[in-house]
Amino acid sequence: MNFGRGPSVVLNVGGTRYSFSREVLKDFPLRRVSRLHGCLSEQDVLEVCDDYDRERNEYFFDRHSEAFGFIMLYVRHGHLRFVPHMCELSFYNEMIYWGLEGSHLDYCCQRRLDDRMSETCTYYAAEEPNGGPEGKGRRPPGAEGKKWLERMRRTFEEPTSSVAAQVLATVSILFVIVSMVVLCASTLPEWRAPENRSVEEQSRYTAESVREPSGIIEAICIGWFTAECIVRFIVSKNKCEFVRRPLNIIDLLAITPYYISVLMTVFTGENSQLQRAGVTLRVLRMMRIFWVIKLARHFIGLQTLGLTLKRCYREMVMLLVFICVAMAIFSALSQLLENGLDLGTKNKDYASIPAACWWVIISMTTVGYGDMCPITVPGRILGGICVVSGIVLLALPITFIYHSFVQCYHELKFRSARYSRSLSAEFLN
């Protein structure tokens, strides 16, 4: 700790005093308390706490003392629960103040918080690490020189952080929509090249397609996406982390096929290679469909879906295991009852277990195309059991996924509300 004297510090939270050593504050689990370790002056301290006593080296926080006591139990034992007879939203507000999130709560309390938020539609915005967008505390040395870099980073990464970020996000969305319209239109019969072209004509068509209106629009969209990706890479803090992010990987998968197809068109010369390149180019061009996922940067719904899948991968694996086990059992039994036994009536649709797997997965997901169905009485009884089992097996893990989806949605709304405050301040100024 760079400010104050003495081997220990005292936190006074709502009249309750806690004593800690200086080294403990450095890696304290509560973000607000750990910020005290880096304070250089009394002004910096007053940005973190409400008051400071230099003589006793005591920091005052005008917060709920009982709620902080439960938060300290989490620091010591790793379990965070609600204070009895205290509003869940009020306690959650205390958690946000000290630097905790809803994911730190025990699962039972997370469900209570999700239900309460769903009922009241109340959203609390987490505070900015440096006192919020309107904070006027002294910045550390060198912060002014990096201010423009941080602003550019937020402009490209957070669509709601400023007016310029919203304009940039709108332009990016328009490019995605235009590229998707061109992709869909290129599959129309009037736009496609005739299938009976010769190899030389197909090569000439592939080379000249870039100069057509659709090719020009595609090149402009690719140029915009490439420039956007390069700028975001340059202004990113951690280049390795930037490359590992899923959305950035998707951007790379959406941009790379265009350049590969152009290179293949330029360097492919022999007829046999042209025939193979024709199929490859069509596959690469169809990979432009990944551009749709770029919309996840600008819509909370898609971000919530991706974050939910990331956090619930265990539940998703469990769901797939349930389906695979049931599919193996019911497909083997249905093949035996419909085709394997010599009952005088054989259903050719169930000639093999892999063929029966299609019927099982369609029945368990309650889609029921009707393209194949059992005709024997034992097979129909088995089909009914298969449908009921599918409903039960699918319903079990979905409860966990639903609660995680609600929590992810609230977290993303909190972050969006935080940057909306800075956008409102910029607009008013």
Helix and strand arrangement:
Elements (H helix, E strand, L loop, with lengths): L7 E6 L2 E6 H5 L4 H4 L7 H7 L2 E3 L4 E4 L3 H13 L10 H11 L8 H14 L26 H11 L5 H23 L13 H10 L4 H23 L3 H6 L1 H22 L3 H16 L13 H12 L1 H28 L12 H12 L12 H52 L1
Helix pairs in contact: 6-17, 7-8, 7-10, 8-10, 9-13, 10-12, 12-13, 14-17, 15-16, 15-17
Membrane topology: Multi-pass membrane protein
Subcellular location: Cell membrane; Cytoplasm
Protein name: Voltage-gated potassium channel regulatory subunit KCNG3
Helical content band: 55-70%
Q: What is the count of structural domains?
A: 3
CATH topology name of the largest domain = Potassium Channel Kv1.1, Chain A
Q: Helical element count?
A: 17
Query: Class of the largest domain in CATH?
Result: Alpha Beta
The total strand number stands at 4
- Which stretches are poorly predicted, pLDDT < 50 over at least 5 residues? 121-137, 194-200, 202-211, 270-275, 424-429
Structural class based on helices, strands and sheet pairing: mainly alpha
Q: Write out the strand line-up for the largest beta sheet, numbering strands in chain order.
A: 2-1-4-3
Radius of gyration in whole Å, from Cα? 30 Å
What percent strand? under 5%
Strand count, sense and closure of the main sheet?
Answer: 4 strands, mixed
CATH architecture of the largest domain: 2-Layer Sandwich
CATH homology superfamily name of the largest domain: Potassium Channel Kv1.1, Chain A
Primary descriptors:
disordered C terminus, cytoplasm, ion channel, transmembrane helix, Helix Hairpins, Four Helix Bundle (Hemerythrin (Met), subunit A), mainly alpha, flat, 429 residues, Potassium Channel Kv1.1, Chain A, 17 helices, single chain, four-stranded mixed beta sheet
